[in-house]
Amino acid sequence: xxxxxxxxxxxxxxxxxxxxxxxxxxxxxxxxxxxxxxxxxxxxxxxxxxxxxxxxxxxxxxxxxxxxxxxxxxxxxxxxxxxxxxxxxxxxxxxxxxxxxxxxxxxxxxxxxxxxxxxxxxxxxxxxxxxxxxxxxxxxxxxxxxxxxxxxxxxxxxxxxxxxxxxxxxxxxxxxxxxxxxxxxxxxxxxxxxxxxxxxxxxxxxxxxxxxxxxxxxxxxxxxxxxxxxxxxxxxxxxxxxxxxxxxxxxxxxxxxxxxxxxxxxxxxxxxxxxxxxxxxxxxxxxxxxxxxxxxxxxxxxxxxxxxxxxxxxxxxxxxxxxxxxxxxxxxxxxxxxxxxxxxxxxxxxxxxxxxxxxxxxxxxxxxxxxxxxxxxxxxxxxxxxxxxxxxxxxxxxxxxxxxxxxxxxxxxxxxxxxxxxx
Length: 423
What we know:
Elements: H1 2-21, H2 27-45, H3 50-73, E1 78-80, E2 86-88, E3 91-95, H4 99-107, E4 111-118, E5 123-129, H5 136-146, E6 151-153, E7 159-160, E8 163-164, E9 182-187, E10 200-203, H6 213-223, E11 236-241, H7 252-265, E12 269-272, E13 274-275, H8 280-291, E14 295-299, E15 318-324, E16 342-345, E17 349-352, E18 358-362, H9 368-377, H10 386-394, H11 405-409
Parallel strand pairs: 9-11, 9-12, 10-11, 12-14, 14-15, 15-16
Antiparallel strand pairs: 1-2, 3-5, 3-6, 4-5, 7-13, 8-18, 17-18
Helix pairs in contact: 1-2, 1-3, 2-3, 6-9, 7-8
């Protein structure tokens, strides 16, 4: 077993290096490189790990293929930035720029789209339109030379980290005991459902709020009642839809705007079951939320251990969550963060579906709301700081009898039996 874990760690490191070694101007070559590494790693570690290494390699290849396909489907809306992230086409953002930086940019053909101070965050952003003849990668390099020292970023996209089945059933189960506290959700829109109380919603992109299966499932895990008794059924929910019906949905600016609204709404905990790259605006927004005493919980994603560290889960202020199956085993597809705080159920869970009924869900997306809801049920004193909240929750965490340690489970499994019945 030790040899297997070592081999998987080596495979993950090699695949992660391949995925980040190039910035995806020629993504097909990177996918091919992952294929080659899959063969190489399999040869190094031998037959006993072939299936496991194949699964890790497959997740890395799936991730690369998925982001390439996204840009190909929406070429008018999306492109790759200088780090190989999928971002809003033709837009760059300056954070807290000085007049000289703005003047330098506009003199070279960059046009101001908007200049705002984000509500609830007090962060100034200036969004620029890139000259029509310039790619985003070229524009980033050009603007960095024009405005040295300025904080310049693209507007990258973040994606949900879980899947929802189409199957429906009539039952859910298990009880929780909620408190009258407000929880925030940054995701898609939440559909009306017999198991859900009214949800306060606001959209931060075109066509939002628009009901999402992903967000509806997460909401039911946290605050469901009746047939779908969630972890904190007495809590209220504020849902910020950053996806709507917009190909550009899920971008960093929308997430920051959503966070500002949730802070103004007085939520105690924010669940973010989304993953993407490190980003200056998102990092600052997370810092503001932490300074205001709001706890943030994020999933580590489902792209496997070879994927780059997931954000916002990797920010030190965020409580990072992975998923386990009904036997307490770490999900093979679970991604990674720079730290890991807890694990929670993430396989064969029952959750609400738009249109009524319940379906099964899987992924770290659905593990995170278990932790977020449990944090919301702590006393105000117990969740006064991140450290206090983590310590309080660690007291109820269950450490698996099998190996793996903090690298697989963090401080242990939360809510292994407390809310949603597994199939």
